[in-house]
Amino acid sequence: MNENELMSSLPVPKAVAKMAIPSVISSLVTVVYNMADTFFVGQTGDPLPVAAIGIVFKANMFITFLQMGLANGVQPLLGYNYGSGDHKRFVSVERYTKKCCVIVGILATALFFVLREPIIRLFISDGEVVYYGVKMLIAYMLSGPVIGLLFVNMNCMQSVGNSFPATILSVMRQGLLLIPLLYLLNACMGLNGVIYGQALTDYAAVILLAVLWRRIRRRIERR
C-alpha cells in the first residue's frame, strides 16, 4: 500500500486503524517504560531513590512535553501539505519545527540545570530525596536538547502514511533498547548507571529515526 492510497482511497475504518493503533501501542509502551525505570531503581532496596525517581519523572515531563507539543501541533500542517502535494512546504515546516524544538530544548534544559535543586524542592523538602532527585534530574536532562527531533520525525512519518516504522522506533526506544540497557547498566554500575539509561536510549533512537526518516524524505522529494 502506498501513501496516496492510505490518505485518499483506503476505507475510513482501515485508515483510522492504521494511523491510530500505532499511537495506542506507543502509549502503552510508555507505561511499561515508566514501570521499568522504577523497577530497576527499586532494586537498590532504598526508598529514597524510588521517591526521587517519581519526582524526576514529573519534573522532566516539562522539557519533554514542550517539544512534544510543538511536534504534535504541526502534524496537521504537515499532513495537509503532504496531501496537497506541496512537498517543498512540507520540508520547510519540518525543518523550522526542528529548529524550534532544539532551541526550546536547549533553553529549557539549561533552565532546569541551573534551577535543578529548587525544582526538586518544589515537590519535596527531604534533603536525602532532594540529593537523589538532583542527581537523577541531571541524568534525565541530557537528552533534553534533542528529544524534540525524535517527536518531529515520528510525526512526519505518520503524516506521510509511514506510521508503522515510527511505532517500531518508539517501541525500541521505550522497551527493546531501554530495558536491556537498564539490565546492563544496573549490573555494571548499579543506580548510577540506571539513571543514565534513558538519555542513552533517547540518543540512539534519535539517530536511528533520523536515518530512517531521511531515506523516506528523499523519496518524497524526488517525486
User: What is the count of helical runs?
Assistant: 12
> Poorly predicted ranges (pLDDT <50, ≥5 residues)?
none
Tell me the overall shape. elongated
Please identify the structural class as seen in this structure: mainly alpha
Distance between termini? 17 Å
The largest sheet, given as strand count, sense and whether it forms a barrel, is: none
Strand-residue fraction?
Answer: under 5%
Fraction of residues in helix:
over 70%
Radius of gyration, in angstroms, nearest whole number: 19 Å
Report the count of strand segments: 0
- The number of distinct structural domains comes to 1
Give helix and strand order, one letter per element, not per position: HHHHHHHHHHHH
Mean pLDDT: 81
What does this structure look like?
By secondary structure, this protein is an all-alpha fold. The protein has one domain (3-221). It is built from twelve helices and no strands. The two termini are 17 Å apart.
Keywords:
elongated, single chain, about 220 residues, mainly alpha
Spell out the blueprint of helices and strands:
Layout: H1 3-9, H2 12-42, H3 47-73, H4 75-83, H5 87-114, H6 116-121, H7 127-141, H8 147-159, H9 163-176, H10 178-189, H11 191-194, H12 197-221
How would you sum up this structure in a few lines?
The chain has 223 residues and is mainly α. Helix content is 86%, strand content 0%.
